[in-house]
Amino acid sequence: MGLALFLTTMLLVCITQVLAGIKDRHKMDVVLDYADHYFFTPYIYPASWPEENVFRQLLSLNIISDVGGALLYLITATCSYFCVFDKRHLKHPHILEAG
Questions:
Q1: Tens of pLDDT along 37-94?
Q2: Closest Cα to residue 53, out of 40, 65, 43, 64?
Q3: 17-38 residue pLDDT tens
Q4: Is residue 61 one of the residues assigned to a domain?
């Protein structure tokens, strides 16, 4: 499912650029630009992949979205555990004790 969505998005971006006639380098969004300049270019991608490459931009956005989504989930789940979850439920007789 994820690969099909990625390929569909890639195809739509390519078609959009061809139809719009974009031939010059366009500016990436701010987060992608900083991540690309300070992290992806020196550590991830080979020098042969230009920053204007649509596939490289889509891969970078996919990585940023995945990591951002995981961080958002972990932060909200941690806050929920400490602020919302009722710890008295852990004292119920059906809860197994560790050890």
A1: 888 888 888 888 888 888 888 888 899 899 999 999 999 999 998 998 888 888 888 8
A2: 40
A3: 666 655 544 555 777 777 888 8
A4: yes
Q: Is 99 among the domain residues?
A: no
Q: What's the number of domains the chain is made of? A: 1
Amino acid at site 89: H
For 18, 46, 69, 75, the CA distances from 79, given in Å and listed in that order, are 45, 39, 15, 6
Query: What is the DSSP track for 33-88?
Result: HHHIIIIIIIIIS-TTS-TT-HHHHHHHHHHHHHHHHHHHHHHHHHHHHHHTS-GG
| Identity at 33, one-letter amino acid code | D
For 69, how many CA atoms within 13 A lie in the half-sphere containing its CB? Answer: 6
16 assigned to some structural domain: no
Range of the domain at 66: 25-88
Q: How far apart are CA 75 and CA 10, in angstroms?
A: 30
Residue 9 lies in a domain: no
